[in-house]
Every structure is written in structure tokens, then in C-alpha cells.
Amino acid sequence: MALFDRNDIAVDLGTVNTIVRNDTDNVLFCEATCIAIENKYNSTHTLAIGNNAKKMLGRTPQDINVINPLLNGAISDFETTKIFMQALIERGKTNSLAPRVGISIPQNLTQVERHSLYEATMFAGAKEVLLIEDPFSASVGAGLDISTSRAKMIIDAGGGLVEASIISLGGLVTSAYTKEAGDFIDYAIIEFCRYNKNIGISKDIAERIKHTINVFSDNPNINIGAKNLVNGMPIAYELQLNDFKNLLLNSMEKIKSVILEAINEAPPQIAPDLIDDGAVLTGGLALMQGLRDYLEEELKIAINLSPDPLQDISKGAYLIMENYANYEQGL
């Protein structure tokens, strides 16, 4: 009998976005990992979660806090994470019974961080919590058979982390990661604008810049709304996207280094599999223009972009929950 039933939910709890599903085709929640909380009259009240909370960022009065409960995939605020998970569980429940919750987590989380997430989810109303590491969720969600002796390499490029992992016989052979992922690039763009352009920009605009630039071609200028840091006034600013090429190339170089680290630590028997099959690139950062081509050219192996990189982890977590007995030993 499958462990996963209609009242069970799988969660891709990402630093930037969270996805909740109770079926491979049924997404219940796909929004920002963000929550807006009002602290007033010595009580706490949740105003919004997800995209509605993100819209409030930088616009709230003093008694409202907009919080991202995770940092690099780890809990940065226990109480806020508990409230956030309560909201997700309420959205995911299909009946009055407490659901079983499977959460995909970064492979590098410490036991303390795992326990904190487990506790927060149990306190939020889960019947049982299964923690599934991202390399396995991403691989299964991308359609890879990780049970065989043929090695599979998955590069999960997300907002909080970039993880490069090699899996064989249902277990992790090698893995390496960097926190210089999507969020890191966004904040680097913000800092570049601050110190080189004397303007302040929002994280949303930084994300837009990140996904608009192609480091291997000429880029158009774009018009943005910003804050003039010299006099504090709003300003309409024409931004030269070509100025950010080196910043993005440096980030791609770091991602390449992480992949090389994972490959270098693998035994020689893995080499023929990587030569024949290459690696699968998934996660939100996988959609950054030029990244796949850059990695393929630099590493001299095939880099296959997953057909659905934003959904792979949540799909994989669901599939692993559905057949947990087949994956439990490797996890």
C-alpha cells in the first residue's frame, strides 16, 4: 500500500518560493516563501502569506513585519516558520484529518536545523513529517531512475543554494554546494547599483535584471524606477544591462566550480556514465540565460535542462512519498 494518500502533501520549501502539491498534477500553492505578520496590542496576527505578503515588502507600517522564514534553505525564524507551515497545511488538507507532510530540504542542513523544521511542521498540525533531501527530490522529479548502478548527476540551482550531486544505487555518491545562488546574485546586483550607480533598487528589479541579461550577447538598456541615493528622491533611471555581465559570469564560474568539486570527489567508475549521460540542470536559476550553454562549454559534458525545472523538487517529493519504502534506505 502506498504511503501517500489524498490527505498527504509534498512541500518544496524553498528560500525564494514554496510549492505545495497533493498530486503530480495538482499544485495547491506556488508562491513566495514570505509571510506578513501584524504585531499589535500584544498579539500576533497573520495578514498574508506568499505573493500577497511579498507585495507588502518595504511598504508596511511599523507594526507589520514581512518575513522570509528561511535563509539558504534553513530556518531563520522558528515561530514564523511554524505559522507559515500552518497556513500551508490548511491549504493542503483535503479533509479534517491531520496530513502527512513530506518536505524537500537542502542536503547540507545540520541535524539541529532538520529537527527545527521537523518540530515546526509537527507543531503546525502535521500527523507525520518526512524530510527528503533535495538531490533525491530533484532527480526523481526530473524523471531520473536513481535506483540503478548507473550514476546520475543532478545540478539543483535554486534561490538559496546551488547543489551538485551524483547519485547511484539510490544513495548519494558525492555532493557539493554553494550559497552563491539566485538570492546571492540578486543582492549582488543591488549592491552593484548602490556603489556604482548611486541608486537603490528593489529585489524584484534585481531579479528582473538577472533573468533579462544574456552574458554572451549585447543587451538593451532598460528603464527602471529607483531611489537616488544622493538626495533620497525617486528617480527614473536608464540602466545599461551590459554593465552586469561580469557579475553574472562570476556567479556562473562559481557554479562551475561546485560541479567540478562534486565530479572530482567521485570515483573513476562514475566517469563513463557522466561522459555518456552528462548532467541534468534544474531549479529556478537553471532558467538564467546562458547558464546551460556556459556550463556545457566549460565542463565539456552534456548539460540537459530539465523540461520543468521549477516543479521538479515538489514532483519528486510527492513521488518519493508515494513509494517511500523504495527510497527510504538511500534517504
TrEMBL record:
Which key words are in the record? ATP-binding, Cell shape, Cytoplasm, Nucleotide-binding
Subcellular location as annotated:
Cytoplasm
Q: Which SUPFAM superfamilies match?
A: Actin-like ATPase domain
**Pfam families according to UniProt:** MreB_Mbl
* Chief location of this protein within or outside the cell: cytoplasm
Signal peptide interval: none
InterPro entries per record: ATPase_NBD, MreB, MreB_MamK-like
Superkingdom in the source lineage: Bacteria
The family line of this record is: Belongs to the FtsA/MreB family.
This protein's name: Rod shape-determining protein
Species of origin:
Helicobacter turcicus
